[in-house]
Amino acid sequence: MSTLEVTDLTISRPDGVRLVDEVTFDVDRAEVVGIVGESGSGKTLTGMALLGLVPEPLAVAGSMRLGGRELVGQSAQQWQRTRGREIAMVLQDPSSALHPMLKLGEQLTDHLRTHLGMGAKAARARAITLLEQVHLPDAEELLRRFPHQLSGGMKQRVAIAIALACEPSVLVADEVTTALDANIRVGILRLLDELRRTTGMGIMFITHDLAMLSSFADRVNVFRRGVIVEQATATELFTNPQHPYTHELLDAVPRIPWKMVDLEAVGSATEGNRDDA
Amino acid sequence: MSAPSVDSVGVSTDTPTGAPASSGGAGYTRFVLRRVVASVITLFGITIVSFGISVLVPVRAETVNLSQQALANPEVVAAFREKFGLDLPIWEQYLRYLGGLLHGDLGISQQTGNPVSTDLANYAPATLELVVYATLLSLVAGVAFGIIAAAMRNRWPDHLARLVSLIGVSVPTYWLALVGSTLLFRQLGWLPGSGRLDATMMPPPRATGFYTIDSLLAGQFDVFQSAVAHLILPAAILAISTLGMILRFTRSSVLDGLSTDAVKAAKVKGLPHRRVLMRYGVRMASSPIITVAALSFGFLLAATVYVEQIFSWGGMGQYAYRASTNLDLSAITGISVVVAVIFLLVNFLADLLASAFDPRIRLQ
Amino acid sequence: MTKTDVVAAVRQATTTELHRRHRRLPAWMRRPGTIFAFVVLAFWLLIIALPVLRPYDPLATVGPALAPPGPEFLFGTDALGRDNLSRTLAGATVSIPNGIAIVVAAATIGTTIGLIAGFFGGWVDEVLMRLADLVFAFPSIILAMAIAAALGPSIQNAVIAAAITWWPAYARAVRSIVLAMRESEFVLSNRLSGVGTFRSIVIDMLPAVLGSVLVLGMLDMGAAILFLAGLSFLGLGAVPPTPEWGSMISGAVQYFDEWWLAVAPGLAIVTVVLAFNLIGDALRDQLEPRLQEMTGEQE
Asked: Which of 136-165 (C) contact B at CB < 8 A?
């Protein structure tokens, strides 16, 4: 049984138009599943559905099972207990996602105390551990800082730390590197990769950038207009793309030939000389 | 107020090193110092403006102050002009004026014959008490309804709130005071209509000048009750005049706060809904609200000119009204300086408070 | 929000309604509040334009002093036996046009200063903005009161005093638009191709600036009329015997029992100001997000 099983997920507008149409995929333990597509393909909406945050007029049908438990049709209260605790999300722009007026320590611990009932001291200790997990130095000092005093990359690491806090089984990463400079992206991807191996957390990585997934994802789902048009392991997808749309996306991406050679030689997209990337 | 570019702090490579630029309460002390300097400069500006206004008068000072007989005598006129330094160059006159101000000399009131500063010192506490309570009232109601309006956006409470604030802004304060006083005092007799206390009562021993506080300190509960009863109508009427502004401001600030990604992130964390509303909507609105509170205080301070006369309040407002209708120029300019200084102080304090809530302000 | 976006928003705000083919009136005009407002304003316009609509001569004694409202005098008479209703109607001629004059004067001064400050920058900008800040240091009524008193009581002086108090808001708004547009690409390309300073201001910036100034002016209209009436209430505006709403209410303060003396002019003020505010509110709702960018969250 996979950690997360999404079956025939359908999100439709009141007028009947389906924005996400019978989407089916899994996320296993410690697995990175890539969700790729252009804007409007339904990938973000799928991510929102996993957190029960699909906006009002839209209706959600189908099945989403987390550890065997059905999420579709949960009550609002149940959703509030699921969010941040069993499923976490990291948003695209850390500058606007963090509360500008609260200290970082506050932002790292408030949901800890809500979900796990931790006391102030325990929560603080956990916050320091989390900051160390995402490789931010001077954790104690950092707790007292405000978001605007940090760089973009640091803020995103804090956002990831917040997501990790309650040890969720699945992390939804929605375009988490899009707002960052190219040279910082690598660090974030490396961090996520390390985290999924150490915590066993599954990652659903939403992006429009196919190139990023080539070295990072285990399996990839290609979204187009609400439908998954291709679903394969990363190796298969990049060496032998089936659907014409996938071809289009791949053609649009500047290819790094040596990388492809690596994939073939090693036989898996999750190994290789990523440290040089 | 805008947040600075976040890439200006920290390095662009992702190796997290070093402490951020500012330290020690995130730059609070430096911000305070900057504000103090700015306030002092504004203080000088105020004196220049009020001096400038007194220079505007198209009629020569001696014509107003001397009798016909004296005016006919050039020696008397010359002596008068010399005494008041009217023939000195402008900047010298300004310096004399400034010197006088620093000694607390605001001129002599033409109607009371007292130094303006003495008059104001006597009348100020009454006005301050009224304005403080009116501002608090307006704030409490305005913020509460503003939050409700934001939380129930575009539903009927929102529309009602906006209608009420619109009407509140369209009514002249003095007219409302008159109508309210006639209705609730004259016709219905529910509330007292004039003065700060019942005619038969003696004011409490003077500690702060606020009858409400002083009476409590002296244990005179009947005086306290009377003071409160007399405060209700004028404070409520003043509060109505700024209610609309505060409500609208709160509403839009809360909505702004709620529309940020931070709210989405908070929901994603699984924080309960009410927590999100308060922490994000209201908290983000806290510094604009503090700013608008200071603005309201200043506005109401000025509005007492309209209202005190009708309630025979015996404060600066009534003094200003009489000065205005009698064209008592020295009193008027004196009042404007004092009010501006009070306003400056209130804004300064508001800035300190707002930046304590919102650290981004400290960078300005 | 980048500066180019601000420029785009401003241009959109000023040209959208003009260029769209009007099959129906724009949304803000169709709201019930706005329609009511237009009706009210039309009424008052009529009153101003047609003096014959007044039952009696507002300056003449036509009946007993302090007579209560009755069939002969719908809103009673004042202390000098003049018809209250006629005086109230005549007051519109004083209050409304002069209120508009305040806004026009403040907007003109403010726009000019804002354009100069924004365009030339440097110390010119600093000095002008310090001047604006000085005005803001005083609560507006107090400052206007002081200026009007110094100049002497008259309607013209009241208008001048009020305009002096109001121009900074316009100057700030215009300046921020100019600053945003200065950096925009199309202005830069104009300067590169040798277009002179003056032409640059007039052709590039003025249209966008005018649009937002017009909107700001509309929003201020009601407040300006209130302000003017307030100054008259303090004895610093209209001089008796000229009928003016504020001074009429001031005269009514001593006559507590003769409630009609204050009610008529008060109602007049409320209806006019409410009408202007309703229109302004509807306009603001329509343009809300763009307006906030222009004025930088000021109200």
From this structure: 137-143, 145-147, 149-153
